[in-house]
Amino acid sequence: MSGESLSLAMPTASPHAHAGGSVTRVMARVMLALLPATLYGFWLYGWPAFHLFMFTIMFALFGEAFALRLMRRPAMPVLLDGSALLTGWLLALSLPPWAPWWIGAVGGLFATLVAKQLFGGLGQNLFNPAMVARVALLISFPVPMTLWIAPLPLGSVGAPGFVAGLQITLAAANTVPQLDAVASASLLGFAKTELSRGIDLLHAAANAPVLSWVGARAGSLGETAALLIAGGGVALILMGIISWHIPVAMLAGIALPAFIGHAVDPARYLDVATHLLSGAAMLCAFFIATDYVTSPNTRLGQLVFGMGCGLLTWLIRTYGGYPEGVAFAVLLMNALTPAIDRLVKPRIYGRDRKGKPLEPPEAAT
Amino acid sequence: MGLIEKVFSLLGPAIHTDWGVHPADRKRPAADSPVRGLPLPERLHVPLQQHIGAAARPIMLVGQTVLKGQLIAEAQGATSAAVHAPTSGIVTAIGDISAPHPSGLSFSAVTIESDGADRWADTGASVDPFSLPPQEIARRVAAAGVVGLGGATFPSALKLGLGLRAKIHTLILNGGECEPYLSCDDRLMRDCATEIVDGIRIMLHATGATRALVGIEDNKPEAIASMTAAAHDFPDIKVRSVPARYPMGSEKHLFSELTGQEVPADGRTTDLGALVHNVGTAWAVHEALRQGRPLVERLVTLNGGALERPGNIRVPIGTLVEDVLAFAGLRSEPARLVMGGPMMGNRLPHARVPVVKGTSGILALTAAEAASLEPGPCIRCSTCVRACPVGLLPLEMSARIGVDDLNGAVALGLKDCIACGCCSYVCPSRIPLVHYFNHAKGELAAQGRAQLRNEAAKRLAAARIERLAREAQEKTAAAARRKAERAAQKAAEKAAAEAAQQAAQPAAEETTT
Fold first, then answer.
1. Would A165 disulfide with which of A48, A288, B377, B428, CB 3.0-4.6 Å?
2. Average pLDDT for consecutive 10-residue bins of chain A (365 residues)?
3. pTM over the 0.95 mark
4. How many beta-carbon pairs under 8 angstroms link A with B?
5. Cα gap A52→A102, rounded to integer Å
């Protein structure tokens, strides 16, 4: 055998084996878990939802590539890791399905260009890019961001075809009348409005949009199919991509105060099922709060983080100015993540929690 | 902060119990094929440095004939080990050869040309080791050049002596062999259980320990069965099955698994009355005491996808890796040669390096087996945090080291890192985390040495300044003294002259009057 060819190889340190995972594989599995809910959403809201989804993802990818180009770094390997695609995907799932194309475009660009690459790219961003973009859109364009539509499944009467759908997405101005025809309030939005009008929830219940377990109601793609989202999330837990700590803590963080509140005063506080199945609670609990980059890195820290996300969500929904608070809650907890990581560290072998060496046991057996 | 810590401490003292990783062990079929002996190579290159500590000093001259087992280099200094001839023949050179280290740097070795007879030197009459005092056992183990065969190659006699001083009550035998691919300890326990148990009994006698615990991973049921049978008649030797998990063979982790105790940081198992030895070392102790045979050969696992006939082979120390590979047959050109296991072993620069006492395995890995590292950015997935058997935050430490903040990494526990490689093994971004940590430790050691040097230089400089000042002071003092002396002398002379003058004056007056 020739020693030369080996000695010319790059020096390599141990270990000489690898478990086989890769960033691309992680991202691909997350997207796979999102696929059922996404396809269901396309069916439920028709072609405009699909077009908006494509626009959002394309601009998210473009923002990433553009930033890398500015830094004179090769864009292709970074795009192939799938993180920008996933960011665009998650953002698209949180938008009103018939929103105009520029909502997706601005959001996609903002997510990857500002919220991710300006911070240093993958792994460096403090806040979840999809949620930063969503909040930026919500604050900048409150009208299109809160214009929900009732489901109009593909193939049903009045559902726009591929081209008509594209027209809806592209030419927002002409479609407002059309949108008005199908516009509808989301459940959380309805509850907030009624309460602010002084009508309590018990009296409003008769007119309220039906809370549908199969998701046939107004909302974003990631909202209506709450059970499919949860199913995808459970699949991710089973695949070992995420752990149960953040989702369970976050859902518990919403459910506990909701349960207590509803038990005390059902006229003022929504019930647990409405809280858990509405808005982006499921999507956030399984897919957004669990974002590796912006969540704590110990199990205990993740429980604290998830619980915080849940509690803040309930607080904002119940007492805040917006009907939905998941995005704000996640961003606030993202800001706390470095602090949680500082406080919650694993105990080192042979040391106590403060890092002092353990006392040797006296008179060992 | 205090309150938060109190809440956390209520959550239990244990670190995460799911430490470590479960790599595919790939031990079979190599572990199941019977041990083969390597045909005697024509030439052996026996390194003088096969252990932790100072290199041995050669006592042979080129051209001398040696017998198998004859001392060719003696231990030098407190921490060192003797080296013996692995076969009979002629010493043809004492020179340099590439070390089995990625650097490919060379070290000294005695080259012996085999005479083909493989004749043993007179190994002396066998004595009953239990009639010998413990110190004598340690001395004979040292004379046989026995070092820790688990890979650390610490001179075993020193450890036995330490046992006597540190009041050891438990001897722990490491049969974990948690590294994937390796099966030499497994094979040894299956085939030589009686000899190992005898070695354990001798070590118990040498250390004064009252019990021995043999920890074997549960992926080696044959070894557990054979060791349990061999230890059956000795109630002070217990064979325990431990879960197969990397790095179970880490001294502190095996100790904790077997005793339920935790070794305090900066401490050793000996602080808790336990001494850990490898099972292979017990075999070597048996050979040294019962047969009078020094450590001149060892069992080496040959494994990896590039090999035709993987298995365990008895190899004389000093055999070139290329001879061993030729014996096992290469199926394809290996993408990487590794000495030791895949998790902590060293990549070999080429195959012309000798087998040493610490060589547990030689792996010829195909490109598909050898992990290729094209590191990407850390995505903070914290898989490394859960894999770390020590409870460190590898991702945070590597971020600190990346910006040269070594003290920050130390504050996060860099010095507690055991370099097992779990973090690198699981990292989806393929960041060579453990490589960073080893680099940082080396850097810190170098900084420490540089600081010592600086301090020594400073002390010398300060001493010089002080000496110069003292000399100058002495000089001026001496000058002042001389001046004073001169002045005094002058004054005395003057006084004498005046006195003489005065004495002369009255006389003159008398004469004038």
1. A48
2. 39 83 92 93 89 95 94 89 94 90 95 94 93 94 83 74 78 53 65 70 60 64 83 94 95 95 87 84 93 93 96 92 87 96 91 85 53
3. no
4. 198
5. 9
